[in-house]
Amino acid sequence: MTLSGNQYEIAAGPYTAVVTEQGGSLRALSRDGRPLVLSHDADVQPPAASGQLLAPWPNRIDRGRYEFGGEAYQLPVNERALDNAIHGLVREGSWAVAEHEPHRVRLTYRLLGHSGYPFRLDLTVDYSLDAEDGLTVRLSARNAGSRPAPYGHGAHPYLTLGRPLDECTLTVPADRYLEVDDRAVPEPAARDVAGTAYDLREGRLLGDLRIDHPFTGLRRDADGRAWVRLEDGARSVALWADEAHPWLEIFTADTAPGAMRRAGVGAEPMTCPPNAFVTGTDLITLEPGAEFGGSWGIVGG
Q1: pLDDT of 135
Q2: How far apart are CA 138 and CA 72, in angstroms?
């Protein structure tokens, strides 16, 4: 048995993917044998959160402290160098397989009361492949407890073209972004990307540009999807996010370990920005019995 548990393989047309029991994570995704996301061995912990699902919050909570419903809470700080609680509570847990067909897999996870998060959620993730449309992922949460719960989610794939990011063009359809401090905690108010290095709306050769910022004000197509594209002139890979995800974290993997460093770009769909448990920005309050879900996907070109 590998460290990440059972490995669920799915395929359709030119696409193949591997989803893991641990964290319900996307460990690999390829088209015609060419990786579209950075992968890792099944017997190692996912480096730099690679492919993980992030719930009940994405990204960081400043020092792990927040208030909700008139109560103060302290989450375990698991990003010790920066003194933050990062990426939720479900990415290390064992997700149960509910359905597994050749082209899709559905996993579930029951989040019981946790230190700093005394709420109960039932989560479901569905990964499906289509020969034309590539990968679609839907993550949903239902409040199975007796009181309202704060909630947000995200995902952490790294798009790759198999070459250094410096040689790739990145397009992010965002009008605004959040500046961050030296602990990667964002300021509350969004800034206009116009005139900054983070104006990626028309595509930009990355060169040595470093990014680890949340983006919003997303421009969408007729189907309500916002598209992030990584291109090198011959090939492309694109991630889309539906309207349940008004935020994208873009990370050029400058602090990722070893060969991952600047080999792919973290394109992370999020329902809320970092530190939303503190600021309340786009934070979802799930009432008992209520459910919330959203979808995103990846297509190779």
Answers
A1: 99
A2: 31
Instruction: Give the C-alpha distances (Å, rounded to integers) separating 101 from 10, 11, 112, 135, 155.
Output: 7, 9, 28, 14, 23
Angle at 60 between CA 252 and CA 128, to 5 degrees: 65
* pLDDT bucket at 239, cuts 50 / 70 / 90: very high
Fold classification of 7-300 (topology level): Beta-galactosidase; Chain A, domain 5 (2.70.98)
Question: For residue 73, what are the CA distances in angstroms to 35, 122, 141?
Answer: 41, 21, 21
Nearest Cα neighbor of 203 from 243, 232, 176 is 232
* Spatial distance between the Cα atoms of 78 and 76, rounded to a whole number of angstroms: 6
User: Domain residues of the chain, as ranges?
Assistant: 7-300
> Nearest CA to 245 among 262, 265, 228?
228
Element of type H or E holding 16: strand 15-20
Exposed, middle or buried, 291 (CB in 10 Å: 0-12/13-18/19+)? Answer: middle
| Cα separation, 149 vs 285, whole angstroms | 6
As to burial, measured by CB atoms within 10 angstroms (0-12 exposed, 13-18 middle, 19+ buried), residue 76 is exposed
273 vs 59: CA distance, rounded Å: 8
Cβ atoms within 10 Å, residue 50: 23
| CA dihedral (281, 87, 160, 260) positive or negative | positive
Tokens of 294: 């959203």
| Contact between 216 and 177 (Cβ < 8 Å) | yes
The tens digit of pLDDT for each residue in 256-273 reads 999 999 999 999 999 999
pLDDT in tens, 67-94: 999 999 999 999 999 999 999 999 999 9
Per-residue model confidence as pLDDT tens digits over 27-70: 999 999 999 999 999 999 999 999 999 999 999 999 999 999 99
Average pLDDT, the chain: 97
Give me the pLDDT at residue 1, please.
79
